Structures are given as C-alpha cells and as structure tokens.
Amino acid sequence: MTEMLSTDFMRRALLAALLIGITAPAVGLYLVQRRQAIMGDGIGHVALTGVSLGFLLNTSPVWMATLVAAGGAVLMELIRARGRTRGDIALAMLFYGGMAGGALIIKLAPNGSMANLTTYLWGSILTVSAGDILTITLLAVFVIAMTVGLRRQLFAICQDEEFARVTGLPVRLLNLLLAVTAAVTVTVAMRVVGLLLVSALMVVPVAAAQQVTRSFAATQALAVGVGVAVSLTGTTASYYQDLPPGPTIVVLAMVVFGLIGLVAMPLARRRHRAGSADPTACDLVLPAPRASGESVSGGSGGAADERQPAPGATLAQ
What we know:
mainly alpha, globular
C-alpha cells in the first residue's frame, strides 16, 4: 500500500476514483427512479464525439466532452419530453451517431488514432493527469451540489412530474438540469471507469442498495457507499494485478450486488411473513382532508415533501 501511495499517478487515480464513487451513484439514483437507467450509456456514446473534437481542436478532451455530452443530454431530454412515438428511434440515432462521429473525427485529428480513444472508452489509471484531477474535482463539486442541494426538488420530479408541476416546481428546468448533471457525471467518470461502463457504476450500486433499504435517503447513502468502496478497491486491484480499472470496478459492483441480494432474500421473506401474519396491515396511507382553498404545496415553497411520496413512488422517505 505504501508503495502504491508513493506514486503520483496512483494518488491521482485514487482521488479520481473517490470522486467518481460519490458522484455516479448520486446521480444514478434519480435516473433509476425515473426508469432511465440506460441514459448514462447513451450520454457516454455522445461524449465520445466530444473527446475526438478535443483532439481535433487541440483542447482539453474532458472539457470538450462535457460540453458535447451536456448538449446531447439536453437534446435527449427534449425528445423524451415531446413524447413522440418514434422518439426511441431518434434517441438510438443520437447514440450511434455519437459513437460513429467520435471514431471518424479522431481520424481527422493530428496524430489521431483509435488508440487515443481506448483510454476514454475503458478507463486508465495511468492517464489521469494533474490537469484532469482539477477538472474532475470542479465537475464533481457541481454534481454533488446539484444532487444534494436540489434533492427534494429532484426527488419530486422523479416520482411524479404532474404532481411536481401542480406544486409549482419548474419541472422542465429541473429535468434539463438533471440531464446536464448526468452528462457531467459521465465525463467525470470516463478517465477511470471509461465511457462504455460508466452507466453501470451509475446503476448497479443503486440497484444493490435498493434491495435492503426502504427510504430514499438510506438508498442514496448506501449506494454512494457501495460506489466509493468498489471504485477504490477496483482501482487498487488494477494497480497490483495489472487489470483495466473500468471492468474491474464494474465486476466488483456486480459482486456486491449479488452479495447484498443474498442478504436481502431472508429479509424479504421475513417481511412477507410479517405482512401475512397481520391481515389488517395496509401500506396505503390516505392523505388528510384538505381544507377549502388550502394550497397544494402546503407552504413548502413548491418542493415536494419527501416524507410523503408522490403517487407511484417506489421509495419511501
């Protein structure tokens, strides 16, 4: 361990892994709640074009990927919001076009080759520079500020957009902000995890946490904990065993998912037996009658009350 920490590139890689372990599940939780778990994968395809443009224009591939991914995420959200029947085809074209565009543009860059994209596709601890750490840190601060500072508002739109709109929340703006935050998260993680696998780190820790938690806050905390653990452990293992960090981190996340699932099964059976033993138990809680003229928002400034989930909520607060 001392030998590993004595090298500058490993200290940078571990710091990047820590930030990725925090940000990816923090954003992934909202995407999973909205049943958009695959969105991170699509953003990663689009971000590849940004990486190639960075090489072509001789600028930072990370910042260029952030701009292109954010634009692509906004476009995806607008297509989703319009709800057209052929919207899935438009999204597929955007995903594949981003991948193909990146492969073509890199050939136009001076000394460009597909080898330049490999580290961004699969991640590499050797290529995390001091400049990358500064960029990753700034982007991670933005992601954490959005996912924590707007937690109640994002929770509301992920559970029930119509309910959130009735309470006065700017649903369209919050949806776009969540899309941009997801895009930023993808570019934060691509240096270590890789664009092809970043979506897994956004989803698998959340899915693992949901097996044993019964509240949004607990799920968020456990998912971030799992993300940090597998990111740091996978990065360390990649150093000692000469393994690619991205696949190593994702495989570890899948292992944790399986282990938590083994623990969750007896808990689920116990809860089922407890519910069956009490036939009068009922999870349905009817709201108290609202006085005439009372505001729907309840004086909370438009934010949804996380202790009373909107209709259709899958996680209690």
